[in-house]
Amino acid sequence: MTDALRVVLGDQCSRSIAALQDLDPVHDVVLMMEVGAECTYVRHHKQKIALVPSSMRHFARALAARGVQVDYVRLDDPDNSQSFGGEIGRAVERHRPARIVATHPGEFRVLEEMEGWEARLGLPVDIREDTRFLAGLATFRNWAFGRRELRMEYFYRGMREATGLLMEESGPAGGAWNFDAENRKRLPRGLVPPPAPRFAPDAITREVMALVEARFPDHFGGLEAFAWPVTAAEAQRALADFVAHRLPHFGDYQDALAEGEAHLFHALLSTSLNIGLLLPSEACEAAEAAWRAGTVPLNAAEGFIRQILGWREYVRGLYWLKMPAYKETNALGANRPLPAFYWTAQSGMRCMDSAIAQTRDLAYAHHIQRLMVTGNFALLAGIAPAAINEWYMIVYADAFEWVELPNTHGMALHADGGILGSKPYAAAGAYINRMGNHCPRCRFDVKASSGDRACPFNMLYWDFIARHAERFAANPRMAMPLAGLRRMEPGKLAAAREGAARFLESMASAY
Asked: Is residue 8 classed as helix, strand or coil in its secondary structure?
């Protein structure tokens, strides 16, 4: 009889995963499952569906090469039940284990199912903490306890002190905790970002891609540009390439927008981090080492480390602290359906269409495209949080709910009422014009707030501020836009709001 059936999920392709820490290769069996339900609970982008099983198959092969007994269930196995519960039950029948060992999953819905295994199967189930993260869930709960506001900046400072990253005897390196003010430059003309590394699909990945095309032909996106790392070795190469070639400029231009430059100086490591091919500690330590070696400026190393040690750890803690109620919040009462152009990239707004087309082709967009273009539009237009959250889950290869939901629901949409961010990230067209190069070639006029050619972001921005003026009156961080609203000539404001209403009506007619 098998001692332990050790369950490894698709986003846990790491040798350091807690479920494998005391593995007995003789008496234990590792169970890995490709199940159809994980591909369709939202209709994931084809590249997301291909990425996870490909990484799983490579990881299973690496375990088997080390002498580990792996029971691997493929998506196209004829007896596949296509659900976690069904496959756990079948595996228990096959192996008759004395116990089940698993690692805390990344999504609330999976934890709910996992917590029912013990009663259903009549076996002890050990759900272990996911130690890949730098802050345990108990650590975050202890930090959050009794705080009136859960601001990432203060959590981040504590994490810097706890880990020692970018710390000196006198305090934070460079005398400041963050250098965000230095990281908001527009990409200058003539500066060409280096090409991002591409990892050509091998035979295993090509087999998975063919399966995806056969099983999920109608899902969003295509596989032609698939080039993600699918092994730990490839993820390490991707990290090394980023640190050497893009991290030096990452700080300065991390908020830039540039049509035709999908990757700029971004890391492209989120897929590897989120499925376990790369540990967050490895990424942070590599960036810090480059700064200490003098090859990377401090604002670049700090900006990158803050995204992982700060934001990534923070949103995970917030997700597990506030779920499941967090997902249902809708503080701004947004209820508009998702526009068709989020799928077709045919809004007429050049910044939106560029970001959406890139997302369709690559299953990727950088954080400013997500926050200040597609997210900002959803915020201003009042798109229902559930609709836009589902879209983000569908379209990005790195989307898992623990990281997607707080970033979209809280940061982009302000649907949580200010739990995550102290103010909405609302912006008119001037922001996009300042940070990018889309506006000069757009059919809309970024300087106009009314009329047929007015930038929809301008009209929607003033309509949004006016709609929620009473709600935002007590928020000191909204004082500037509210003062601008009061200074506007009534006729100009009325024209902007009428234009917004017309645009939203035309947008709705596209369904």
From this structure: coil
CA R_g for the chain: 24
pLDDT in tens, 314-373: 999 999 999 999 999 999 999 999 999 999 999 999 999 999 999 999 999 999 999 999
Choices 3.40.50.170, 3.90.380.10, 2.130.10.10, 1.25.40.80: CATH for 137-196+246-322:
1.25.40.80
The values of phi and psi at residue 184, to 5°, are -130, 40
Peptide bond into 217 cis (omega under 30): no
Q: What's the DSSP call for residue 99?
A: E
- Any long-range contacts for 243-247 (C-beta under 8 Å, 24+ apart)? 243/286, 243/287, 243/290, 243/296, 244/295, 245/194, 246/193, 246/194, 246/196, 247/287, 247/290, 247/296, 247/300, 247/301, 247/304
Give the rounded distance of the alpha carbon of 158 from its chain centre. Answer: 23
Q: Give the residue from 369, 375, 350, 507 showing the smallest Cα distance to 440.
A: 350
pLDDT at 510 exceeding the cut of 90: no
Over residues 195-213, the mean pLDDT reads 97
> At residue 41, what is the residue type?
Y
Instruction: Please state whether 164 falls in left (phi above 0), alpha (psi between -120 and 50) or beta.
Output: left
Phi, psi of 339, deg, nearest 5: -65, 150
User: Considering only CA atoms, which of 480, 485, 511 is closest in space to residue 496?
Assistant: 485
341-508 has which CATH code?
1.10.579.10
Give pLDDT tens digits for 297-313: 999 999 999 999 999 99
